[in-house]
């Protein structure tokens, strides 16, 4: 499951047991990523707090688009599968998500969505390439500076989480294997799904 030894659920105590219990309740299973943080539950708690704060004032659809753009650029299958699934289930449908992952500029998204994904990709790939023109483009489309900050925060946070998972060899949960095959394949942009 990972390149490091993690705390087995049967042996979990204290904060790790609480972490496992909370994520079982939230996800209906114990995700592989949760176990990856079992040696540093405080870091995982801080991540959850940070990610929650980023999402709190951000439109969820926009958050998911920015996150998928960053995950795709980072080649993070885990994050692309998790957030692509949310986009497919709640906002766009599987066919549209496949199109977005293939080329968001040609997927029929509106100009704001395209610009948001462009910015998220740039932040994930090389934030030093982001310039004032990128932000002016979003402003010209009606986004306020706090909304632009939200996009940058979502993409930058994804860099942390995705890099930790991939740096530890954490593979996406086997449950993602049950996705519609074309969507699953489109969202598997890096490490294979567990059990593959």
Tell me briefly what this model is.
The chain is an all-alpha fold. The protein is 66% helix and 0% strand.
Characterization of the model:
With 196 residues, this protein is mainly alpha-helical. It has a domain at 59-187: AhpD-like. It is built from ten helices and no strands. It has helices spanning 14-27, 32-36, 41-56, 60-74, 77-91, 94-103, 111-126, 132-140, 145-167, 181-187. α3 runs antiparallel to α9. The model has no long low-confidence stretch (mean pLDDT 96).
Keywords for this structure?
10 helices; AhpD-like; mainly alpha; single chain
The CATH level-2 architecture of one domain is identified as Up-down Bundle
Shape: globular
Q: How many beta-strand elements?
A: 0
Oligomer: single chain
Strand-and-helix sequence, N→C?
A: HHHHHHHHHH
DSSP helix fraction: 55-70%
The CATH homologous superfamily of one domain: AhpD-like
Structural class: mainly alpha
Nearest-integer average pLDDT: 96
Task: Please give the count of helices.
Answer: 10
Low-pLDDT windows of residues: none
Largest sheet: none
CATH fold label of one domain: AhpD-like
List the helices and strands and how they pair.
Blueprint: H1 14-27, H2 32-36, H3 41-56, H4 60-74, H5 77-91, H6 94-103, H7 111-126, H8 132-140, H9 145-167, H10 181-187
Helix pairs in contact: 3-9, 4-5, 4-7, 4-9, 5-6, 6-10, 7-8, 7-9
